[in-house]
Amino acid sequence: MSLRVARIETDDDICWAVEEQGGLRRLSGEYSTTRAFFENGGPEDAALARAGGALIQARKIRSPVTSDGKFVCQATNYADHIREVGGDPSHVVNNILFTKASSCISPPDADIVRPSHVRLLDYEIELGLVLKRGFDAPQAVNAQDLSKWVGGWVIVNDITARDVQISHMQFHKSKSYRTFGPVGPWLVLPTEEEFERLFDLELTLSVDGVIRQRAQAKEMIFKPAATLSELSEIMNLHPGDLIATGTPAGVALRPPPAFAQAIAGFLSPATRFRAFLRGQLKRPQYLQPGQTVAASIRTPDGAVDLGVQTNRIVSG
Fold first, then answer.
1. What's the whole-model pTM score?
2. CA 102 to CA 67: how far, in whole Å?
3. DSSP per-residue codes, 67-114
4. What are the DSSP calls for 215-258, one per residue?
5. Residue 152: how many other CB atoms lie within 10 Å
C-alpha cells in the first residue's frame, strides 16, 4: 500500500508527516528539501512513522515538492488535447519539453494570483513525477525499472497565461508567474506493484464544481520511461526534481478556425494577436477572480489516491 506523505506547518515548525488512519504522524527526520527527503531516507522514515510516529496537527499544508529543484514539463502529450488546440496527433513525432521556473510552485490550497495584465488565465491538470534518483549521463530507462528513478507522484496544475504565451511565442514566461504551479497535497510513494497502475490513474479538474478535464494517464503519447531517457540525453536531473507529464483535453484555449488562421498569415504579428485576443475573450472558460479550481488524481477504485487540490483565483 502506498504511503501518502505531506509537508506541513505546525504551530512550531515545518515538518514532514505520513497519513495513517486519517491522521498525520510526524517523521523523525528533518528534511529541508524534497531532494533531502529522498537522499536521506525519507521514504523509509515514512514507513516507520506510519507504524508508530507521534500524531500531529497541521496548521497549513505546504507543497511536498520544494522550489530548489528543476521543474520540467511535457507539452501536447495527450491526443485529445492536441486535437482541441487544432493539431493532428498522428503528426506528433517529437516530445515537446520545456521548464517552468520552480519559484512558481505553491501549496495545494494557495490562491492563484492572476497578474493584472493577464486576461486569458488557463488551467492544466497534470500527473507529476518526483525523482528519487538523478542522472548526469544518458540512461536507458524502461517501464519495468521506472520505480528505480521515480520516487513519488503528485498533482500539478500547470497554470498558464495564454495571452502571454501567444504574444511572446514561448512557454516558460507564460507558465512561470508566482503561484502558477500548485503541487500536492500528497507526495504519494507507490509500491512496486502500484507502479503497474500508473496508467490507471484518472485526472479530473473542475471549475466551480463543473468538470472541465477528465482522462486516464494511459492516454499519454510519450510515456514516463521514454521521457526520462530523453531528458537524460540533454540535462542533469537530481532527486526531488519534478516532471509534469502533460495535460488532457478540456483546457480553455481554442485556436481560431482554419480559414481565419489562413487569413492571419497575411497580417502583421500585432494584428494577428489582437484578433486572437478578441476571439479568446469570448470564451467564458478562462479563469476569473473568485472562481475555484479543484484537481484530483486517483485510480477508479480509489486504491491509489493523490488527494484533492483546491485553489481560488484572485486578482494580482
1. 0.95
2. 5
3. TTS-EEEEES-BHHHHHHTT--GGG--S-EEEE--GGGEE-TTSPEEE
4. EEGGGBSS-HHHHHHHHHHH--B-TT-EEE----S--S--PPPH
5. 28
Q: Which three cell numbers stand for residue 173?
A: 514566461
Q: What length does the chain have?
A: 316
Question: How does DSSP classify residue 159?
Answer: -
CA 6 – CA 26 distance, rounded (Å): 10
* Sequence-ordered list of residues with C-beta below 8 angstroms from that of 157, at least 6 positions apart, any chain: 112, 123, 124, 125, 126, 181, 182, 205, 293, 295, 309, 311
- Say if residues 178 and 104 touch (Cβ distance below 8 Å): yes
Measure the CA–CA gap between 13 and 248, rounded to whole angstroms.
37
Whether the CB-CB separation of 295 and 251 falls below 8 Å is answered with no
Residue 106 CA to chain centroid, in angstroms?
11
**All domains in the chain, ordered by first residue:** 3-62 (no CATH), 71-315 (3.90.850.10)
Contacts of residue 208, Cβ cutoff 8 Å, sequence gap at least 6 = 291, 292
Which SS3 state, helix, strand or coil, does residue 201 take?
coil
Q: How far apart are CA 145 and CA 132, in angstroms?
A: 13
| pLDDT tens, per residue, the chain with 316 residues | 899 999 999 999 999 999 998 799 999 999 999 999 999 999 999 999 998 888 999 999 999 999 999 999 999 999 999 999 888 998 889 999 999 999 999 999 999 999 999 999 999 999 999 999 999 999 999 999 999 999 999 999 999 999 999 999 899 999 999 999 999 999 999 999 999 999 999 999 999 999 999 999 999 999 999 999 999 999 999 999 999 999 999 999 998 655 345 444 545 778 778 888 999 999 999 999 999 999 999 999 999 999 999 999 999 9
Query: Which grid coordinates belong to 260?
Result: 481565419
The one-letter amino acid code at 84 reads: E
